[in-house]
Amino acid sequence: MKEKKTSSIRTKGIITDVIVHAVLAVLAFVWVIPIIWIVLLSFSGQKGSYVTSFFPKSYTLANYKRIFTDTQVLDFPQMFKNTFIIACFVCVISTFFVLAMSYCMSRMRFKMRKVYMNICMILKLFPAFMSMVAVYYILKALGLSEGAMIRVALILVYSGGAGIEFFIAKGFFDTIPKALDESAYLDGATRFQVFTKITVPLSKPIIVYTVLTSFLNPWLDFIFAKVICRANAKYYTVAVGLWKMLEKEYIDSWYTSFAAGAVCISIPIAILFVIMQRFYTEGLSGAVKG
Predict the structure, then answer these.
(1) Phi, psi of 44 (to 5 degrees)
(2) What are phi and psi of 148, to 5 degrees?
(3) What pTM was estimated for this model as a whole?
(4) Kindly report the CA angle at 275 between 106 and 217, in degrees rounded to 5?
(5) I want to staple 91 with a disulfide (CB 3.0 to 4.6 A). Which of 103, 143, 204, 214 is the partner?
(6) DSSP secondary structure string, 15-66?
(7) Bridge-partner residues for 44, per DSSP?
(8) Residues paired with 59 in a beta bridge
(9) CA distances from 83 to 39, 65, 146, 184, 270 (A)
């Protein structure tokens, strides 16, 4: 009787595993289809956005060549350069703000701390683009909405409010035993030394997460970039540039180049993820050893 029950449980377990894996396989296939399609489209030799087949009938590298050489109408290399500069500065500034805020909220106790955290939580319920009109007029009043200062404006916009994203990192810092901090204080370490030499080395996973999100925010954002750049094509980011390629006057000739541009802008993100993944793994192993 027990053997029958055991075999029945095993059979149910196998069936459940098969169903779960089948569902996951279907979902993975659905998730990968758009990626495959955009990559194939970037090599397509067909012109225009209206095609009759999923797979291109001819393949060429001309689309990639065009986005880097044809700069008379849409200067993709300049857009890529603008976005990369902005993303790098924002990544460094935002990561510092988030980690500093998270450490203060996790380790320090001061008046109005809980009230401040509740206010931040409420503010996070509202999308950032609600403030874009007010932000634009503030930047305009400061003379940051014209010329080369547009890059500075975008860096300030993307990194200025980064500190409010401290909740996830704070939760991670809360898991690090405070006894480590107290031991360091007894040995004569300052709060800054505790943060840089104890907390940060043990927090590599959350630092990796913060770096990735800080880099992706300006790299993928469209709304603020469009509002601040307006018609200044010289300072467009890649999101605005790719959007321009799909406008009525450009879509017929730039559609496949748009796909090539979409593939190109994913490369820095993939490289950053591969580089940071090693530190993420090291941080997890270090945390387990500790």
Answers:
(1) -70, 140
(2) -65, -20
(3) 0.82
(4) 60
(5) 214
(6) HHHHHHHHHHHHHHHHHHHHHHHHHHHHTB---SS--S-SS-SSB-SHHHHH
(7) 59
(8) 44
(9) 22, 20, 17, 41, 16
